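Usage

Read records sequentially. Each one opens with the input sequence:
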Amino acid sequence: MLRAVLRPLSRFARISGAHVRGLRALAAGQAPTGTPSVWYGLYHVPSPSEPAVGGIVKLQHLVRRFPDESIRFNVLYLISSRLPDGPEALATWARRKGAKIVLNQNGVAYPAWHGPGWERVNAPMSALLAMADHVFYQSEFCRESADRFARPAAGPHEVLYNPVDTARFVPRERSRSNPPVTLLLGGSPDAWYRVDSAIRTLGALVNRGTDARLLITGRLRWMADPRACRAQAETLLDDFGLRERVEFLGAYTQEQAPAIYQRADVLLHTKYNDPCPTVVIEALSSGLPVAYSASGGVPELVGAEAGVGAPVARSWEKDIPVDPAALADAVETILGSHVRMSAAARQRAVDRFDTRHWLARHADVFEQLVVA
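and closes with the structure output:
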């Protein structure tokens, strides 16, 4: 009861805070024209030494090139998966002071992912898509889903895939010995089926005679209590006799991430309809071929040479877990051509996803907007 009473008050406070921040920026005036000065709308952009996943990671790249300026800015840059409080209010005040609005559009809510009420979740994104002076979609899948469940961008737009620092995320030196195959389930699992599919894939491989182990990263968060999530996963491991083959690594920072990828041989990506996962791009840069649910934006990232997708039906109405047997087949195909696929994964990341290209494109767009 108390939570129900406090929730509207909390929302009112957040929206009011957004208006106060917008008014403060308006009173401070415009940044000098011709030079981009960028605000990200957030109270804090985590440093690489702080835990960060999802949309915030790309800001760690951008803020080094364009430092966060919350007062005298001429570009408001927002990421749909990590919107600040009251994003429409911030965008409205930014426009009143003459600043340009750039939206980095990731996935949107839809019936399978969110259930009832997805329209309410998408409302801020719909408003921003109508207001933005430029939209970066993170994949073709992101553009399609936003068009379908939010609205098409009103202004200029393009697909620009998420970046990776290919100088930091590098392949490890492979030894000539034949250790167990190490699979990596990266990110922070937010749905039980993602972990369930990975564990069952490991079980299928072991039953077929592959000496394999699995690393699971991130905070387990499909239930409110991470300990309950861990207990559910360990129960399944015990059912399959796999407890000794799985290691839970917990949350990690961007500084720690390269070493985690270097412990693995193959990335398992079990999420259905993932829009543009940074974990896949980091894995490719680290020379890890990807065995994945062939859905969402992941096929765009991996291509034909850097991994193998397990087929799944397409649906907006329900999440469809990947078949563990099919995912095990994908892993076996990768292992049969691992040297070639590892080299292809690395080259694809260097050619398509390197941070330098991503930052250069942002610089071009920002400069065009502030001199227009």
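Summary fields computed downstream for this record:
- The two ends are 52 Å apart (CA to CA).
- Residues 12-163+354-371 form a domain with the Rossmann fold fold (CATH 3.40.50).
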